[in-house]
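Supplementary Note 3. Input sequence used for the single-chain structure prediction.
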Amino acid sequence: MIRRAALVAFLSLATGTPLEARSPERYDAFVLAFNVGLGSGAVRTVETDETRESGIAANMRIGYRFSPKLILSTEITGWSGDVDNIDFYLLTVALAATYLPSGRGLFFRAGGGFGAAKAEVPVGATSTILEEAGPGAILAAGYELRAWERFGYGPELQYGWMNAGEGTKADYAILTLSFNWYP
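The predicted structure, written as discrete structure tokens, is reproduced below.
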């Protein structure tokens, strides 16, 4: 009895799934997700070369899982970092499709929408705020472990790109931990 309980506990921790309490996953459900992590971002203008710096990132997503292999969502991803002593904020808002080839675990996401870049440039004792916006896109890949019927988590790698206008282009590559809830 103790060996069986120890084996169940070990496999539950190793796989991220409480094996004794496992019930069928929901496929026709809303998806609410939140990611947090780190990554690098870069901003390029006509006058400057690319400078890539590290920073923090977050993502929020709401969508609907239409089938075991397809989720359609709207998501907002932000990255913040310091590039050459200038505080930069990059944001993408996208309509995205997530494809799960086997219906669970590994997934790929792509989407398009718009992106925005904001910079706080120090000028003496004050700062000037510069903002640009334009088209943007995201690509992501990751792996979701199901902890319970309605909750999953896992790593996600995302790349975002935006053309913020006036010769300004920006991108980020982030690695996050995703928390997905299927209410």
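The chain has one domain: 24-181. The first helix runs from residue 2 to 15.
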